[in-house]
From TrEMBL:
The keyword Aminoacyl-tRNA synthetase applies. InterPro entries: aa-tRNA-synth_I_CS, aa-tRNA-synth_Ic, Rossmann-like_a/b/a_fold, Trp-tRNA-ligase, Trp-tRNA-ligase_bac-type, Trp-tRNA_synthetase. It comes from bioreactor metagenome. Its EC number is 6.1.1.2. It is found in: Mitochondrion. CDD domains: TrpRS_core. This is tryptophan--tRNA ligase. Pfam families: tRNA-synt_1b. Signal peptide: none annotated. The gene is trpS_2. Belongs to the class-I aminoacyl-tRNA synthetase family. One of its GO terms (cellular component) is cytosol. HAMAP family: Trp_tRNA_synth_B (MF_00140_B). Keywords: Aminoacyl-tRNA synthetase, ATP-binding, Ligase, Nucleotide-binding, Protein biosynthesis. It catalyses: tRNA(Trp) + L-tryptophan + ATP = L-tryptophyl-tRNA(Trp) + AMP + diphosphate + H(+).
Length: 333
């Protein structure tokens, strides 16, 4: 039996990495068995900060679909679609923008920070679209009357604002929308190959799409205990990035690996080889699904078209209600 309805989205910004998978997508794959899920590749959101160069957008959308499907999201169990294929998102965004005080949008904690941060990289996001980002996110969620939204910690302020916007709508017109709550999965942060948080902005990521050989190459580049210079030096697994990965991918023998490192019974090169093989093994199903889909790009498009058709039905029904309570139904057939 379904616990409720989920909506979540990700921006197709390219470079989906193993941290994104373990921190977010793996959770979705579990949730698909418990909830009725809508998962959207939010291409309009991607334009709120990267509107100038859209040359990679189609490729990024395709790759994100491959990431999701190869991770095991089932297009029958879930509604998987591209945001811009369901125009109701834009209509509701517009209507919500009428009732949202400007000050609510301006006080989002990340709003000014991100303008400055991207500004220092030469990108100007002092735009109407970027200011309205939370408006679009609110429309995404409430179009489907989702009650649960799996997100990372960073999205909590956005979700809080969504609740305020929909409360205002419910108060001004009629109670149409339920209030969604955040679903925070396990909050482990995966390190990148240099030991800092894995992030596309550091260039320390392991791409989720990496082939077995690319995986092996990235593992070879991982930083280990800096105090351990020679193989005969005793190591400290607690400060070693390779060991942090062993804890995730080599679940059974981690105690043994730690001991062998501390006693200098295993060198870093062999320890990395062992890790790489474990990773290749545990990601084998994902790699196999990806290869199948890569050989059949039409299938990927069909899945997204099918998802958009199903999403549109729900979204259209919500918009009828919205127009009705706002007195925008006159003369409609
Ligand atoms: P981002 O691409 O940074 O916007 O992140 C998208 C999602 O992946 C968010 O839910 C993050 O919490 C998650 N995520 C990103 N990097 C990591 C990481 N290194 N470890 C765990 N989760 C991550
Ligand atoms: N803002 C989210 C992010 O950057 C993506 C997103 C768009 C989203 N719409 C959403 C997440 C609706 C949850 C629900 O990660």
């Amino acid at each position: 039996m379904s616990k409720g309805r989920i909506f979540s989205g990700m921006q197709p910004s390219g470079k989906f990495h193993l941290g994104n998978y373990l921190g977010a997508l793996e959770n979705w794959v579990k949730l698909q068995n418990e909830y009725e899920c809508f998962f959207s590749i939010v291409d309009w959101h991607a334009l709120t900060s990267a509107y100038e160069d859209t040359s990679k957008l189609s490729e990024n959308i395709h790759n994100m679909a491959l990431d999701w499907l190869s991770a095991g999201l089932d297009p029958e169990k879930n509604v998987i679609f591209i945001q811009s294929h369901v125009k109701e998102h834009a209509e509701l965004h517009l209507l919500l923008s009428m009732i949202t005080p400007l000050s609510w949008l301006e006080r989002v904690p990340t709003y000014k920070d991100k303008i400055l941060q991207l500004g220092s990289q030469g990108k100007d996001i002092n735009t109407y679209g970027f200011l309205g980002y939370p408006e679009l996110m609110t429309a995404d969620i409430i179009l489907y009357k989702a009650d649960t939204v799996p997100v990372g910690e960073d999205q909590i302020p956005h979700l809080e604002l969504s609740r305020e916007i929909l409360r205002r709508f419910n108060n001004i017109y009629k109670p149409v929308f339920p209030e969604p709550k955040a679903y925070l999965g396990k909050a482990s942060v995966l390190p990148g190959i240099d030991g800092r948080k894995m992030s596309k902005s550091y260039g320390n990521e392991i791409p989720f799409a990496a082939s077995p050989d690319e995986l092996r190459a990235r593992v070879r580049m991982m930083v280990t205990d800096p105090q351990r210079i020679k193989k005969s030096d005793l190591g400290n697994p607690d400060v070693c990035t390779v060991y942090a990965f062993h804890k995730i991918f080599t679940t059974k023998e981690t105690g043994e690996i730690a001991t062998n490192c501390r006693n200098a019974n295993i060198g870093c090169v062999d320890c990395k080889k062992c890790l790489a093989e474990k990773m290749v093994e545990s990601l084998a199903d994902i790699h196999a699904r990806r290869s199948d889909l890569e050989a059949n790009p039409t299938r990927v498009k069909e899945i997204l078209v099918y998802g958009a058709e199903r999403a549109r039905k729900v979204a259209a029904a919500t918009m009828e209600e919205v127009r009705e309570v706002m007195n925008l139904s006159y003369g409609r057939i």
